[in-house]
Write a structure and sequence with these properties.
Helix content of chain B: 40-55%
Order of helices and strands of chain C: HHHHHHHHHHHHHHHH
CATH architecture of the largest domain in chain B: 3-Layer(aba) Sandwich
CATH topology of the largest domain in chain B: D-Maltodextrin-Binding Protein, domain 2
Shape of chain C: flat
Shape of chain B: globular
CATH class of one domain in chain C: Mainly Alpha
Largest sheet of chain C: none
Chains: A mainly alpha (322), B alpha/beta (571), C mainly alpha (319)
Oligomer: heterotrimer
Number of strands of chain B: 16
Distance between the termini of chain B: 86 Å
Number of helices of chain B: 25
Distance between the termini of chain C: 24 Å
Strand content of chain C: under 5%
CATH superfamily of the largest domain in chain B: Periplasmic binding protein-like II
Largest sheet of chain B: 4 strands, mixed
Number of helices of chain C: 16
Helix content of chain C: 55-70%
Largest interface: A-C, 110 and 109 residues
CATH class of the largest domain in chain B: Alpha Beta
CATH architecture of one domain in chain C: Orthogonal Bundle
CATH topology of one domain in chain C: MetI-like fold
CATH superfamily of one domain in chain C: MetI-like
Chain lengths: 322, 571, 319
């Protein structure tokens, strides 16, 4: 982190260079800003950073009934267990793949839906659609996966019925028995559950676009698509880029609940994620150390991805997070 | 957006903020003020110490509170629950119960790390290892003659293998008097009653006969109530994996030892043995004959139960308790003929079935007293009181005249109304001390007056609840209950059951066990669904993968403990 | 960094093509497509909720059979009765409302205040504070050290453990900061010239302009606080009077699952069809719980929704 902190001022135009060294005058002038932010920073240091001492557990054979001094130190044993397991590569692949699919599908569908909702002229209808589309967010995964599994059934599952009626398939497909479909099913389930909810933030961004811009575009003879292209999209671009950068950092957060609930022996090679692995060999075995090691690994990957994404955005002259 | 809206918004925001700080004070007060119900550690501790000095035999009971952690889900009883009220009136004890809702490993992790234990905690191997309980031997010797007598035969079995102390008082498995069993809750190959009736109540003993019967019925009735008939189901979802994993050990005449088969006190895994292969090859053939549900390996537990309760599934291997809800649903629909009867199948008739076992001591379950309990004597005396027959009757049957009655022969019976209300979860919250009783030491079998220690075990109760269809069915076989389909179990081996051996978290043994389960979950469905010609190939992949797992660590741990049990438990 | 480019300039150089013949038909086609699409969306997303409601009013033992879609097959209110039977749900409801309200207001106020300082390009600690907060999104110290912190701060078994540890979320902070950056800088400049201090600028100028984004953030925080159960599970589980609605419901569903999978419960013995009908099952109770838990928060939604669906005329406020 220190690297970026020191690097960036150099990369900036020279006139900003003085920003690097702050003077007492600046501090004095900005004392209100300082009062408004520094206490909250101390607060987050206490609640988020201070407990990070617990990461030492990853290098121990942590036993909760022992005090810190009594713990057995084992070096990189936990990481070794994690990285050398036969399944690790596969589990990592699944996590990245599903994380990536969720990221792309999540972004694209939410933005498209936001744009289409924005095109609805009748306010009531728009509100109704929007309210309904976010309802599935309030259902737990166990309910959603229950409905998904029923819909994919070969007996009376709606998916097979519809595809048969449309003559796309000739006989029902046992969707959940084939690894090749699994990632797609997980991705689609995510979209189904979260698309309405994910749209909200873009709707808020669209709502804040100055209507004068649309009026101006209209006067220039812009049609619907031109307005989307030249007013709406640029208007929400900042939000999109920032959210994208933040999400890229969460690429390993493919989750475990959906995979756990929809997975089975036949697709286990495609379904198991890092979280499931760590749960099975960490927490379920009372091995808090392995769980911590898994967490550290994910953090390292996350922050690397975040910095990369931020760097790319900077290179492209886009909005940046940091 | 006028200025007015803005102002109201801001004013209300400020109001809320100040309210929140006012509530802060409130919250603090609340904590102190409510301690009677909340059970602040110190205060209840004081109360307990005060009463500790007083004479236990005196008429006046001084109230005291026991904080309890129950490591399983449960519901808080209503504040005016009649049984807890009676306990409070007669012993002075109130329970401040906490139930688990969420992951037990997370909860125990913080509990152990913070040493935040209540007075009474349900048994758990992790807590024993962490030293959360106090040893109970001396306390019981000194203050609890009835408990001592209750557990006399099981005393050595209750000792912890690592240091020989008794930390937890098992809640189930201590039997007195005649043991009545009219309900079998364990594992078996199940078949719809209608299937047996259809072919004139045949005796089905072997796996081959079983599948032939199912095939015959399915051929005759390709649909049931308009839906396609399903021959056989295998549930393998999450931790419910016995439907796939366990049959081989039973088919060769062994009882349920979990993942191992024990011969002459030596345990070995059976997952990769030939008699296991024989079973899965049979399933492969069954699948080829179209008897196996196509969806069987992708379904979740709910879908499985849905199929069972639709009445279209002819058979499966399962533990009875796992599909009780499906049978309830069938009962509700009036489809008694679609409920199931358990068959103890074996490979060949020369093998004696050993599905049903003698009740075993429920180790590492029940209550232990924590190191934080201020007055363990008071608590052990309370448990001593509650093990008396009168209290046991109150806890198991309820209050005479309200929840059950005595007939002319002095037998405990219930009216249909009493039976109905007893199944109502809402009624139970106000009228049963279900959650505590489940974990308290208890008498099982029969009381000194000959009555069974619970309505479900009372033979008259069972017969009264039996439906005409069942009577006819049982008469055809000349049986009293469905339990009679199983051989009378021999005396359990001393070490039995191996599945209750704690593998120790994070040990090589436990990791090997997890790996083995992973492989079985992955390969067995593949093998069963494979083309018959490919079966051997998949099976060889499976066994060679098992070869890479540290099975020895797993078997060694089990054998070590079997030996320990034989050395220490033998009378 | 600068995304105040949302001004008419980008459009200035663009020449729009004149509407041709197909163009006249186009709006109709688009509207039709859009309407059909939205109807499909409504059907697909409404179904799971309607299904859940139907299941919640259906007899538990009947639901097990499956095949419940939009309407209960055997009507009952038993599932709801089971939820409200113990009475603890009412107290828990109050706690949930209180924590949601307080959390939302504190979050909104503190996060926006901080976001404002981080939007000020001249602020000396801007960079370092941004980094400090952003990173918190990507790591978690773990359960046990967090527990020790809460314990050492004497927050264990208090109401405040629901509020204090989550007063600011980095995600929300960044979203609000991004939003504030789109507001014209001239607003701040002119306020400065009028002699307003930074807090006053934030409170009088920035805060009121943030309504659309604050409505969104309020929704995020409120839903998060309302749905949270883990803190009640770890930090206050031994205090019944501090239990939240979600945690009570969680206990209920777990206990239903438990009693349905309990080897010691003899199913079927002595049970009549009528009493079997009154039994609750995990599926049915879960459905009823979902309805009970989500309806209160759904009721709030339309009030917040108007800010981001209908849109706020920021432009007119800017002048």
């Amino acid at each position: 982190m220190a690297e970026t902190l020191t690097q960036q001022p150099v990369a900036r135009p020279p006139k900003r260079k003085k920003e690097r060294r702050f003077t007492w005058k600046q501090i004095k002038d900005q004392r209100q800003l300082i009062w408004m932010s520094v206490p909250l920073t101390l607060y987050i240091m206490l609640f988020a950073y201070y407990p990070v001492w617990g990461w030492t557990m990853a290098f121990q054979n942590y036993r909760p009934n022992k005090s810190f001094g009594e713990q057995e130190w084992v070096g990189f044993k936990q990481f070794h267990f994690l990285f050398t397991d036969d399944n690790f590569i596969r589990v990592l692949r699944n996590t990245v793949a599903m994380g990536f699919i969720n990221l792309v599908l999540g972004f694209v569908t939410a933005i498209i839906l936001a744009l289409l909702l924005n095109e609805i002229r009748k306010v009531l209808w728009k509100r109704v659609v929007q309210t309904i589309s976010y309802l599935p967010h309030f259902l737990s995964w166990i309910i959603v996966t229950g409905i998904v599994a029923t819909s994919l059934s070969i007996n009376d599952g709606i998916v097979n019925i519809v595809l048969m009626k449309l003559h796309i398939i000739n006989e029902p497909i046992l969707w959940l028995s084939e690894g090749k479909y699994f990632w797609g099913i997980v991705g689609a389930s995510h979209v189904w559950k979260e698309v309405g909810w994910n749209t909200i933030i873009y709707l808020a961004a669209i709502a804040s676009i100055d209507p004068a811009l649309y009026e101006a575009a209209e006067i220039d003879g812009a049609n619907r698509y031109k307005k989307m292209q030249y007013v709406t999209l640029p208007g929400i671009k900042g939000t999109v880029v920032i959210l994208l950068i933040m999400s890229i950092g969460h690429i390993l957060e493919a989750g475990f609940e959906v995979q756990y609930l929809l997975g089975n022996g036949l697709v286990v090679d495609w379904a198991e994620t890092i979280d499931i692995f760590v749960l099975k060999y960490g927490l379920a075995q009372g091995n808090y150390s392995l769980a911590t090691a898994g967490g550290i690994f994910k953090t390292v990957v996350s922050i690397t991805m975040l910095l990369l994404a931020n760097g790319v955005a900077k290179r492209l002259g886009e909005e940046r997070l940091l | 957006m006028g200025g007015k809206t803005k102002r109201t918004f801001k004013v209300s925001l400020m109001l809320m903020l100040s309210l929140s700080f006012a509530l802060a004070g409130c919250g603090g007060n609340n904590n102190n003020g409510n301690s009677s119900s909340a059970g602040e550690g110190d205060k209840s501790g004081n109360a307990a110490t005060q009463t500790a000095g007083s004479d236990a035999g005196s008429d006046k009971v001084k109230p005291f509170e026991v904080s309890v952690f129950i490591g399983a889900a449960g519901q808080q009883p209503t504040p005016d629950n009649k049984i807890y009220k009676k306990i409070k009136e007669e012993t002075g004890a109130t329970f401040n119960m906490e139930f688990l809702a969420g992951d037990i490993n997370q909860k125990l992790g913080v509990m152990i790390a913070g040493q935040d234990y209540p007075d009474l905690i349900t048994g758990n191997a992790k807590l024993v290892t962490a030293g959360a309980y106090i040893p109970l031997e001396d306390l019981i010797e000194e203050h609890a003659p009835n408990l001592k007598a209750h557990y006399a035969d099981y005393w050595n079995m209750m000792k912890d293998p690592s240091d020989g102390h008794i930390y937890v008082l098992p809640n189930y498995g201590v039997y007195n008097g005649k043991v009545n069993s009219s309900y079998y809750s364990g594992p078996a190959f199940w078949v719809q009653k209608a299937v047996l009736k259809e072919f004139g109540y045949p005796q089905i003993k072997t796996l081959d006969e079983y599948f032939d019967l199912i095939a015959k019925y399915k051929e005759k009735y390709p649909t049931i109530d308009g839906s396609p008939t399903i021959g056989f189901e295998i549930l393998n979802y999450d931790w419910k994996n016995w439907g796939l994993f366990n049959p081989p050990q039973h088919l060769i005449g062994h009882p349920n030892d979990g993942g191992v088969v024990v011969n002459d006190g030596v345990a070995e895994i059976f997952a990769d043995k030939d008699y296991a292969k024989k079973y899965y090859q049979k399933l492969n053939e069954v699948n080829e004959r179209g008897l196996l549900d196509k969806e069987t390996f992708v379904q979740n537990s709910d879908q499985y139960l849905a199929k069972l309760s639709s009445g279209t599934v002819l058979g499966m291997f399962d533990q009875h308790w796992n599909f009780g809800t499906a049978e309830d649903a069938l009962t509700t629909q009036g489809k008694i003929e679609r409920t199931y009867v358990g068959l103890p199948l074996v490979y060949d008739t020369a093998t004696k079935d050993y599905y049903r076992d003698r009740p075993v001591l429920n180790l590492n379950n029940g209550f232990g007293i924590s190191i934080n309990a201020k007055d363990p004597v008071k608590i052990i005396k309370l448990l001593e009181t509650l093990i008396s027959e009168d209290w046991q009757k109150t806890l198991a049957w309820g209050i005479e005249g309200e929840d059950y009655y005595l007939n002319e022969e002095g037998r405990f019976m219930r009216t249909q109304e009493q039976r109905d209300q007893a199944t109502d979860a809402t009624w139970q919250l106000a009228n049963k001390a279900k959650s505590m009783f489940e974990y308290l030491p208890k008498i099982e079998g029969s009381y000194s007056d000959g009555n069974a220690t619970g309505p479900a075990e009372q033979p008259e109760e069972y017969q009264a609840g039996l439906k005409p269809y069942d009577k006819e069915f049982l008469d055809a076989y000349g049986f009293q209950t469905y339990v009679d389909f199983f051989s009378e179990p021999p005396q359990n081996p001393v070490y039995y059951p191996a599945w209750s051996i704690d593998l120790i978290d994070g040990s090589d043994a436990k990791i090997a066990n997890t790996k083995l389960n992973e492989l079985s979950t992955k390969f067995l469905p593949q093998a069963i669904l494979a083309k018959p010609g490919d079966f051997d190939k998949v099976w060889n992949d499976y066994t060679s993968e098992i070869g890479k797992v540290n099975i020895k660590a797993y078997e060694d741990r089990i054998n070590e403990l079997i030996k320990w049990r034989i050395d220490n438990w033998s009378k | 960094m600068d995304n105040r480019q949302i001004s008419p300039q980008p459009n200035a150089g663009i020449k729009y093509r004149k509407n041709s013949g197909i163009g006249r038909l186009e709006p109709f086609l688009f509207t039709t497509f859009n309407t059909v699409f939205m109807i499909c969306l409504v059907i697909v997303t409404l179904y799971p909720f309607l299904n859940t409601i139907a299941v919640s009013f259906n007899v538990g033992n009947d639901t097990i059979r499956g095949g419940i879609y939009l309407w209960p097959r055997e009507w009952t209110t038993q599932n709801y009765k089971a939820i409200f039977a113990s009475g603890y749900v009412y107290d828990a409801f109050f706690i949930s409302v209180a924590r949601t309200l307080i959390s939302t207001l504190l979050n909104i106020f503190l996060t926006t205040m901080l976001a404002y300082t981080l939007s000020r390009k001249d602020y000396v600690f801007r960079k370092v504070i941004t980094v400090i907060f952003v990173l918190t999104m990507y790591f978690n110290a773990g359960l046990i050290p967090n527990y020790f912190l809460i314990k050492d701060l004497h927050l264990l078994n208090t109401f405040w453990v629901y509020v204090v540890p989550s007063m600011i979320s980095a995600f929300n902070l960044i979203v609000i900061r991004t939003y504030i950056l789109t507001l014209p800088e001239a607003l701040i400049e002119s306020a400065k010239i009028d002699g307003a201090g930074d807090f006053k600028i934030f409170w009088r100028v920035i805060f009121p302009l943030c309504k659309p984004v604050l409505a969104t953030i309020a929704l995020f925080v409120a839903v998060g606080a309302w749905n949270a159960w883990f803190d009640a599970f770890i930090y206050t589980s031994s205090r019944q009077h501090l239990s939240t609605l979600q945690y009570e419901l969680m206990k209920l569903i777990s206990s239903t699952m438990n009693s349905n999978a309990n080897p010691s419960v003899a199913h079927g013995s002595g049970m009549t069809a009528e009493s079997a009908r009154d039994m609750v099952t995990p599926i049915s109770i879960r459905a009823a719980i979902t309805v009970v838990a989500s309806v209160p928060i759904l009721v709030v939604y339309p009030f917040l929704q108007k800010y981001f669906v209908v849109g706020l005329n920021v432009g007119s406020v800017k002048e």
